[in-house]
Specification:
The chain has 286 residues and is α/β, with parallel strands linked by helices. It folds into 2 domains: 80 residues, lambda repressor-like DNA-binding domains (434 Repressor (Amino-terminal Domain), Orthogonal Bundle), CATH 1.10.260; 192 residues, Endonuclease, Chain A. It is built from 12 helices and 6 strands. α2 packs across α3, α4 packs antiparallel against α5 and α7 packs antiparallel against α8. The N and C termini lie far apart (49 Å). The relative contact order is 0.12.
């Protein structure tokens, strides 16, 4: 935040693309400002994600930077549109103060078209049952759950409605075998969680793969969520969460590396059919 302005993840993602194009064209912010009949300060704010961008400005900058590919321009326009929506959105998450720093992620998830999630430690949030979440919160807090915890659990369940709305989110989740063998909350809770995975996997927009032991060591220390807002890969942002910190990777080589990390892990995982058989067999063991 800076006064009444907010630098958003999508705004910064769009700005980084424009900076890359401007730099490749050998131009400065002054050149951009002249084209837009604006100040260099305004251009700087655009490139840093502080202000929403208008379609005419994007088209004018693309013309200046020598970008004529309709696909590339369309991707920028779509990202700008989603960012404008995100800035003015007043969604259900505004009523859940317990989300804290997760609110930015939840807001973006609400406007994303697809999410790729690699989880080496826990079942992905979009696939968790209330009792599974409750156990995680209890272990984290090491005390009786509070109203804030129950609100957080309700928000986690509310997020999952994106899988069933009019324009459903496409979810591809790869889950490490250790996650499924770790009986979070005991046998009853974990059996219900595994059965829930089998149920959700029937949705046409959900793909679940299991990465078995011994398949790969890469990424075991690194849960990754890749969010897409246009064509997958074109305008992706990466979200990573640690116990006491959150990290956004907004495009560039590092985002591409994490996207490739997910693809590499997914390639080593069991097929969708074999993964569901694996989960079904684990359920019978509990």
């Amino acid at each position: 935040m800076q006064g009444n302005s907010t630098s958003t993840v999508l705004g910064r993602r769009l700005g980084s693309e424009l900076i890359k194009l401007r730099t490749a064209a050998g131009l400065t912010q002054t050149h951009a400002a002249r084209t837009l009949t604006a100040s260099t300060t305004k251009v700087a704010k655009m490139e840093r994600g502080w202000v929403p961008m208008r379609d005419p400005d994007i088209r004018a900058l693309c013309e200046l930077y020598g970008v004529h590919d309709p696909g590339a321009i369309g991707g920028l326009l779509e990202l700008a549109r989603v960012d404008r929506e995100r800035r003015k959105a007043k969604g259900w998450w505004d009523d859940y103060a317990s989300l804290g720093k997760m609110q930015e992620y939840v807001t973006l998830e609400s406007v994303a078209t697809a999410v790729k999630s690699w989880q080496p430690a826990f079942v992905p949030g979009l696939l968790q049952t209330p009792e599974y979440v409750r156990t995680l919160r209890a272990n984290h807090q090491r005390a009786a759950l509070t109203e804030k915890d129950e609100e957080f659990i309700a928000a986690r369940v509310k997020r999952q409605e994106r899988l069933d709305d009019d324009s459903p989110l496409t979810l591809h989740a790869v889950i490490y075998e250790a996650v499924l063998r770790n009986t979070v909350g005991g046998d009853v809770t974990m059996r219900a969680q595994l059965e829930h995975l089998l149920t959700v996997a029937r949705k046409p927009n959900v793909t679940i793969n299991v990465l078995p032991f011994g398949s790969i060591t890469l990424g075991l220390d690194c849960p990754v969520n890749v969010l897409s807002f246009a064509e997958p890969g074109a305008m992706d942002v990466v979200y990573m969460e640690a116990p006491f910190a959150q990290l956004w990777i907004e495009g560039g080589e590092r985002a591409a590396q994490h996207g490739q990390l997910f693809e590499t892990i997914a390639e080593r995982a069991l097929s969708e059919s074999d993964s569901l058989t694996f989960i079904r067999d684990l359920t019978k063991e509990l």
